Amino acid sequence: MSDQLLTMLEDTLGMFIFLGVELTTLFLLISFIVGVIQEFMPADKIQRILSSKSGKGYLSAAILGGVTPFCSCSTIPMLTGLLKARAGFGPTITFLFTSPLLNPIIIGLFLATFGLQVTLSYALIALTVSISAGYLLERFNFAQHIRPEILGDNPPTGCSGNSQTKPQNMTAFPTTCPTNSNAEKTEATICGSVEATSLPNSCAGAASLKIVTENRWNRIWQETWSQFTKVLPYLLLGIAIGAFTYGFIPADLIATYTGSDNPLAIPVAAIIGVPLYIRAEAVIPLSAALAAKGMGMGAVMALIIGSAGASLTEVILLRSMFKTPMIIAFLTVIFSMAMLAGYLFNLFF
To answer: InterPro entries of this UniProt entry (predicted)?
Structure first.
């Protein structure tokens, strides 16, 4: 085995382990935080803040995306939480686009690498396209392409018999103090994923509250872990593809096909950006290095938007949430944004 091949394999394996640990940690952490938010913030409040009935909801979603330092993959748990909370579909999709493209990390790196004028131009393009895309996808009823299981539309099962089931994001409190003179303890059944819990015969307030609180945190973690196990196969597949791309496709090859003298440099850079899964911390320094090797500024912007705005890992994860038309629409928006930014930067910079 040649030294070069061995180096590529080592780079690929190292990137696979790095991405696997990083994304697993981020996914679990963010999913848990979202679960906590859902537990303590009523769904109707989220719906009001991110309503699609006014431009305020879209602006709120863009701001939310701008303050969350997520990459394209770690945006997914937050997206799932917003969909489950029945936030407006248009604002939710706006968040999906803005979170990886306008977060504080990527804006700060843009400022440090390219300066204020380039950063403001990039931010304006990303913000305008993201809000427009969210609005149009809402108007064309792309919400119908959400998979039913993401919204929790499966038929619920009651505690027993004909009893009503509480949604799992609601806390179950016993409505009456259980009494049983012939037993020291009486079971109070709590619906949802929480098992029956034994309560003292006196139904003491403090003890009851403690049990409910423990059940609450346990329920949030169980939901987090359940969500993670469902997407794990998709996550591992996307990481494997991204790691292979990282290890076996050299930067010089990218620069060769995206030079300023190539009329197809911008669409090629946009297409390359998606499988080339790179975090914001790396994509901008890499792009600066490629620009120094001869890559045009327009192609640089297309590469940044393509790689930061989408990745194969993210697309695979989104495939578990949306049907094919929505996946096609998502990729179309990212490619269109990348090419629009590329041609505008070629024209003005």
So the answer is: DUF318, UPF0718_permease
